[in-house]
Design brief:
The chain has 395 residues and is an alpha+beta fold. It has 12 helices and 9 strands.
Length: 395
Amino acid sequence: MRLSFYFFVASLLLLLPPPVQARTLVTRTLNNGLKVILVEEHKSPVVTVQVWYRAGSRNEVTGKTGLAHLTEHMMFKGTTNLGTRNFKRDLELIDEQERVRDLMRAEEASMRAAYRRGEIDDLMNPENQTARYRELEQQFAKLVKEQQDLLVKNEFDRIYTAAGASGMNAFTSEDMTAYFINVPANKLELWMWMESERLLRPVFREFYAERDVVFEERRMRTESTPLGRFVETFNAMFWESHPYNWPVVGWPSDIPAISKAQADEFYATYYAPQNITLILVGDFHPEAAAQMAESYFSRIPRGAKEAPDVVTLEVKQNAEKRMYAEAETNPQVDILWHTVAFGHRDSYALDILAELLEGRTGRLYKGLVLGSQIATEAGARQNSQKWAGYFNAFA
């Protein structure tokens, strides 16, 4: 019996997967403040690379909401080397566009004054534009058309795709902006060059056309969905004073008012090396990859000033607030409590509480869906963001 038992155990051990090898993790901080995290993993000849910026909608101010998200879009527009057939003329056209845009902004100010006086009822209605504004708009359109003839569209994506890379994308949240892609291991240096180039020599081409794209994205994802506008209103009611109050995509009146100069200023402040972390996971030798990162990314000078801290904290809640909304969708209930930020000692207990309530084995689902059968879905989550958090119970 004992021999058979040992044979059985030995057989089981042979069937078990081999033990996971400890991954090599190397961190570096370059002289300009940029942080590099390298995780060696040789399972396949691929490297997943990400660039994280400590820049999100919380770093905006009233009147400039949507800047972080718009900057994310502009980072795909190219550099002095990528994205144009004639860089010299390209820059001249950008300068001329800004001159006309300054004149258009002066007209927009006069239209806002007319709106305050009640002389026009909708700033977004083209019929309310002044004759001078329409004239300037035609001038600007001609400049845009000339620039479009010089551009090499989507050159970033085309170069990466030709090199075998995949999954290039980015996202912006309240607390951060991140860019990511998967590249073949033998194309890591190509990524190092292209990513460092768009940090060192970015060119925000087609700025106002891309701003219109962002505004259309807002219309599609927020204003044209059954719950989009209500979620936005609810969020603005929940956060009274904190910058989490406004949507990541920006308020509808702010997006069309953002200037390229404002975007340039935001970029200079929050896209400085000391505000960036590179994360590389995949098939490389850490020391060689670290030296490569040093070679390419140390070219970028440290930012002239540190990114300002968020100082506006959420005020103490003095009363319960409720919001009722009617929409063409299934009835839904969300209850939110103000809790704690990421890393706070209470955040871990709240995570455990959410796990007890969440999912098909959670107490909310068992009680409201399986038990009383008054809901088709129920759960909970703790969302600990960098500066503040909330607990959400929903059904």
